[in-house]
Amino acid sequence: QHFKRREIIIMVIGAWGILAALLTFAPPLRGEKGVQEFFISAKNGDDSHPGSRDMPFLSISRCVEEGKTEAPIICTICEGIYRETVSIKQPQAQNILIRSDTQAKSAVELSGLRVLDVNWQQLEDSRLTDGHCVFSGEVPSEGYPDNFQQIFFNGSMMVEARWPNLDVEHVAQSALSRDTWAPTEMGSIYGTIKNADLRQHPFSWNGALATLQVAHQFYTWTRPVANHTKGSDSFEYTRDLPGLAGWDANPKKEKSKGWEHNQFFLSGKLEALDAPGEWYLETTPSNTKILHFWSPTCAKPPQGSVEVKVRDYVLDVGADSSGIDIRGPLTIRGGSVRMAGCDSCAVSNIDILYPTYNREIPEMFSQNRGGKPQFVNKTGLIGTHLRVSNVTFSYSNNNGIELVGDHNIIENCLVRYTDWLGTLTYVPLSVKGNNVTLTRCTVHDFGNAGITAQIPNTPPSAPGEPDPVPKPMNGRRLEVSYTHIYRGGLVGKDTAALYTGGWKSAGLHWHHNWVHDATEKCVRADDQSRNMTVHHNVIYNCGVSPLDDSQSNIAGFGLLLKGNGHYIFANTIMNANYSEICLPSCIEPYKPWAKQYPLRIQNTKQGTQVFNTVARFDLGFPCSCHNSSFLHLPGGNQTAIFNGTNLKLQDPTHMDFRPAQDSPLVDAGIEVPPYTNGFVGKAPDIGAYEYGGDRWIAGCSLHGC
Questions:
Q1: What's the DSSP call for residue 178?
Q2: Rounded CA Rg of the chain
Q3: Helix ranges restricted to H, 389-514
Q4: Which of 95, 70, 110, 38 minimizes the C-alpha distance to 324?
């Protein structure tokens, strides 16, 4: 199916588009009459108090209970740490402002952690080769999860015992390094891992958890270890990995594609506890929980120094809510925020640290779990007219922020050190919906994709059913703009820093972004993408050293857009390992493992327009059409493409990508109204900036950006 091209005016998104979206938001409570304010204090509060400043409540939840009528209320949080889940649900789920006290002298923190006070004793256990710094304590039977997954010591995250080890002083950074994964070596096949270093471990890994980054390596799985004996160089796992996308085992052979040169790590054995900062939770035959902890100081942990993650959410807003405004400055630590269906709600000025963590990966389509959806905890914000602003989000081993719904805005946010397991099921920043704006954000250091974007559309038909009909193009808009994305794909393979695909891409506008230093693809629209607009982006260092991997020489793309109907103009794309620009022009390939739309020719000269862009032509064979029997030229109608190397930019080392006066890019472009309106000089320049024009900046303006 071909999409009807949208009206030209809809395709040009700029400052007016952002302004119009911002005007749809009216902060709740401002200017309302009859607003009642309550105060909460962790130091001198009591939930039997009336909630005044002199006699405050103890808990935020107690304040929320006051919202039983349609009259708006304000919950002002005084300094201190609050260890609770604030559940905002009917009939209190409307017109509530939760904010930190402007008179607070120290920080306001909402915590998902609970202090663990135990009687620590030095461990003496023959299972450990060196246990002189390991201390053990019985976990109370109430108040803690049966199988908790995350602990902190003096405010820093510790590491569950594993091999290879992580650097406990830089947990997130070392988790996002392939150096902390063990390689699968020659002889590894589907269901069997071989690694010579396994022989060095004086114990069996049976019963441990194997985290497997295998096969195509854009997914990661977790499976129990089986059939490992002490001194062996191999172990087995159940051959039931879903979604292998062509890597399924061939019943006539041991494998259909290579399983060597992948990676894995092992966890969940007391014997693996061999480094400062590691811990292991043991369940005794009497069902007692014993925490074994290698103290980083090699001394008995002081009382109150160890905390355990006991709740996923500190703020949980239920469905059919409206007018909920969560406003900092405040810190959320060891927990996160969830909105299950909120209209005209807002989250702003919050620093979220270690929000979500999962040891296992609950696949969405796992065969060995009965095919039932398995959802991972995430900072999921679902609703309409939502606004997320000035949020810093750091150190999640799985997801970052997911924004779902129409007429939403996320702006000036920083998302960093997420998706440590390198799987596409976890995304640092995901936006889904129509009339959505993602602008002036920074996303860096992530294991697979960085930002994913999509607008709901008609799904593919099942075999034998009529061809699907796409939703009308008129009115479809999702904007990713002025955003800085870098250091991506650090663990997984076949990755992209900015990603979309399928008919859900129709109506996406990606403009004025900096995307760079990714291990493979920087910007990608995957199979059967349609009708995107990509302009004024700077894209560089894609799949080049030091951020490269074994596939970078064939997968290091600057801009890869599959499908048809795209407008690509005024981009500066440089220094990609394989090819700066890739526009397949063959017929869309058949993939038996995927649900697909009718297969069409990609990037026709009538459908995809490319102009005023810096990029080398397609240098590969023939780009992503490897499974095609034809050799096609690069797709699209290409005009004014500069494929030289001496761009003469003003100061790219310091992010000034404007052309110098003597640059070959100056006045070298073509006029294509209205896309080139407002150019400086005799003709438009080629690339993302104009000589003499504005030096626009991408990314957030928060501390750490």
A1: G
A2: 27
A3: none
A4: 95
Tokens standing for residue 429: 């920043």
Structure tokens at 522: 């920087």
Q: How many CB atoms lie within 10 A of CB 466?
A: 6
Q: Is the pLDDT of residue 376 over 90?
A: no
Q: What is the pTM of this model?
A: 0.93
Averaged over 517-522, what is the pLDDT?
96
- pLDDT tens track for 47-85: 999 999 999 999 999 999 998 777 899 999 999 999 999
Task: Return the pLDDT at 68.
Answer: 75
CA nearest to 614, candidates 575, 652, 578: 575
Least Cα distance to 234 among 268, 201, 270, 199 occurs for 199
Classified as helix, coil or strand, 261 is coil
Q: Averaged over 414-425, what is the pLDDT?
A: 96
Spatial separation of the C-alpha atoms in residues 313 and 299, rounded to whole Å: 32
Q: Check if the beta carbon of residue 307 is closer than 8 Å to that of residue 354.
A: no
Cβ distance 550 to 261 under 8 Å?
A: yes
Sequence-ordered strand ranges (E) for 134-219: 134-138, 151-153, 156-157, 159-160, 162-163, 182-183, 192-194, 209-213
Rounded to whole angstroms, the Cα distance separating 536 from 61 reads: 47
The structure tokens listed for 150 are 């995350």
Q: Is 371 exposed, middle or buried (0-12, 13-18, 19+ CB in 10 A)?
A: exposed
- Asked if 399 contacts 421 with a C-beta cutoff of 8 angstroms, the reply is no
Distance CA 558, CA 572 (A): 10
Label residue 626 by pLDDT band (50, 70, 90): low
Return the bridge partners of 135, or none.
122, 293
- Give the bridge partners for 342, in sequence order: 321, 383
In this prediction, residues 211-223 reach a mean pLDDT of: 93
Q: Please enumerate in sequence order all residues whose Cβ is within 8 A of that of 77, keeping only pairs 6 or more positions apart, or say none.
A: 40, 60, 98, 99, 100, 101, 108, 330
CA dist 413 → 29, 340, 394, 401 (Å): 24, 21, 11, 10
Interior CA angle at 252 toward 248 and 253, to 5°?
A: 70
Provide the mean pLDDT of the chain.
89
Q: How far is CA 9 from the centre of its chain?
A: 32
For residue 91, name the pLDDT band (cuts at 50, 70, 90): confident
What per-residue confidence (pLDDT) applies to 257?
61
- 348 - beta bridge partners? 327, 389
User: For the chain, how far is it from start to end, CA to CA, in angstroms?
Assistant: 42
